[in-house]
Design brief:
Elements (H helix, E strand, L loop, with lengths): L9 H13 L5 H10 L2 E3 L2 E6 L8 E8 L10 E7 L1 E3 L5 E3 L19 E6 L6 E7 L6 E8 L6 E6 L6 E7 L5 E9 L5 E9 L2 E2 L8 E3 L3 E6 L11 E9 L3 E8 L3 E5 L9 E6 L3 E9 L6 E9 L2 E3 L6 E4 L4 E7 L7 E7 L7 E8 L6 E6 L7 E7 L4 E7 L4 E7 L9 E7 L3 E5 L11 E10 L3 E10 L2 E8 L6 E3 L13
Parallel strand pairs: 5-16
Antiparallel strand pairs: 1-37, 2-8, 3-7, 3-9, 4-8, 5-6, 9-10, 11-17, 12-16, 12-18, 13-14, 13-15, 13-17, 18-19, 20-26, 21-25, 21-27, 22-23, 22-24, 22-26, 27-28, 29-34, 30-33, 30-35, 31-32, 31-34, 35-36
Length: 498
């Protein structure tokens, strides 16, 4: 799934063709130097979509925007977060994007410094954002909401995402205690047409209501899953398939008893998956997996602990039938240590999607979060909204060891950036002692960069206590795709001279 929308000027191709003609007799050394210099460039434009965070009147939401400093971007550019028209639960349109005083919720700051904006109650909007020039490479926006009471109470967080045409959400539910919404946000000038498909333990769930859903231009709409089917399913996989146009999508999963959180889209179907950052004090972990093809998948389940890969007792394998959602309750799998789940296949190579539902606390103090399978950090990834007391950064190297650099940005209220380097052994997960800004105040960003070794996967847990109830939310850190590889456009056009 794309992390950024990449824009290359049309004139670049024409210039490349001219350069190619001029370089017919270019010395080999100069040509090689030219190729190396033009191999990787910062992206010129990014787009992000944020769903409306809550309909609760007792919700407090903060948006945080951050762009890491990227070499070669120049000094020009801008970033804009505009409101989308959000449909409320009763079907009446409500204009979002501004506070009651009429001021913008958030104005992004220059790269290297986070910007925050707060909204109380149910006025928090859905946002459609674009960033250009120096603001575009690695642009990240986080939405964090505290809900004091009621269904879905606790801490809810989600990374704003680019638009796309296909999204997978294993871990949704239409159980009696759950109220799950699929939020669809359309950034374009024309309507988008979307199908929402549901897959339970016995396969596809018939529903014509989820077909040909229209999302108007520049709007965001929540679709209540229980209106698409009468079946009560504890574990569902939701597939959002866009027939026309493009949208951003996220699932808001609200539980009447154990809180709620956002379920972000899982990485695209793949034979092997990594689900990083299970909190060390998790009291219940559930794995939900789905095989979208026509073949069954046999998954080997491993926990990447601080000391290496181990097989969870009684849960070392999971059979996933084609087209059906499978689930396994893993209990308190981490047992007081950092951990990540690593899924491989014992035979064959069947693409699957997967996510974890994680519960912390006991009794009336339970709270829920979700960890979707995610791709590697790659060159760089960022978590935008952090604080020294509540943030935990978890990094796993599922195969070979790796060296990573973690940078804490300046705070939204000042200070300067601080970096630390960590070595992660192969097959392990580490809750690293992430740096904090020097003299900084307010929220700050954590940026993870891979320096050497094998691929690493990362997640950030943000915790806060609301009225004595410990809330938490988990966001994975996929590659921010802040740069793009530009192929060498040199051509031999000497044939044109004949």
């Amino acid at each position: 799934m794309n992390r950024s929308t990449l824009s290359l000027l049309a004139g670049t191709a024409a210039l490349a063709a001219v350069a190619g003609f001029a370089s017919v007799s270019e010395p080999a050394a100069a040509a090689k130097e030219s190729e190396q210099a033009a191999a990787v460039l910062p992206v010129e434009r990014s787009s992000l979509l944020c769903p409306a965070p809550s309909t609760s009147d007792i919700a407090d939401t903060s948006f945080t925007s951050f762009t890491p400093v990227t070499k070669g971007t120049g000094n020009e550019g801008r970033a804009v977060l505009a409101s989308a028209t959000a449909e409320s639960a009763d079907g009446k349109g409500a204009k979002g994007g501004k506070t009651k005083a009429g001021k913008p919720v958030l104005t992004p700051k220059d790269p290297g410094t986070p910007a925050t904006g707060d909204v109380s109650g149910s006025d928090a909007p859905a946002l459609i954002g674009t960033a250009e020039g120096k603001f575009a490479p690695g642009w990240t926006v986080q939405s964090t909401t505290e809900v004091a009471a009621g269904t879905g109470r606790g801490l809810l967080g989600v990374n704003c995402t680019p638009s796309d045409t296909s999204f997978w959400f294993p871990g949704a539910s239409t159980d009696a205690d759950r109220t799950d919404y699929v939020h669809l946000t359309n950034p374009d000038d024309s309507a988008a047409v979307v199908d929402i498909e549901l897959f339970g333990k016995d396969g596809a769930i018939d529903s014509t209501v989820g077909e040909n859903l229209t999302v108007p231009p520049h709007s965001s709409e929540p679709i209540l899953l229980s209106t698409l089917t009468d079946e009560k399913q504890t574990n569902l996989t939701v597939h959002v398939n866009v027939r026309s146009g493009r949208v951003g999508a996220a699932v808001q999963a609200l539980d009447a008893k154990i809180g709620g959180d956002w379920l972000a889209a899982a990485t695209d179907p793949a034979p092997g998956l990594v689900l990083p950052g299970i909190p060390k004090d998790a009291t219940a972990v559930r794995l939900i997996a789905f095989a979208p093809g026509d073949a069954d998948a046999d998954l080997t389940v491993k926990l990447a602990s601080p000391t290496g890969l181990i097989t969870p007792a009684g849960n070392g394998e999971l059979h996933v039938k084609a087209g059906m959602t499978a689930a396994a309750d893993l209990g308190d799998i981490t047992r007081g240590e950092a951990g990540s789940l690593v899924l491989t296949q014992t035979g064959g190579s069947v693409p699957v999607v997967a996510a974890l539902r994680v519960v912390r606390g006991k009794g009336a103090s339970q709270e829920t979060a979700f960890i979707p399978a995610v791709g590697p950090v790659g060159t760089r990834a960022t978590s935008a909204d952090n604080n020294a007391k509540g943030s935990t950064l978890s990094i796993t190297a599922p195969r070979a060891g790796a060296q990573v650099k973690v940078t804490a940005s300046a705070g939204s209220g000042g200070g300067s950036a601080v970096s630390k380097t960590f070595t992660i052994k192969g097959g392990t997960t580490q809750d690293v002692a992430a740096p904090t800004p020097s003299g900084g105040k307010g929220s700050y960003a954590l940026t993870v960069e891979t320096l050497s070794g094998g691929p690493v996967h990362a997640a950030r847990t943000l915790a806060a206590t609301e009225d004595g109830v410990p809330g938490f939310t988990i966001q994975t850190l996929p590659d921010d795709r802040g740069t793009v590889s530009v192929p060498n456009a040199r051509q031999d056009l000497s044939v044109l001279q004949k």
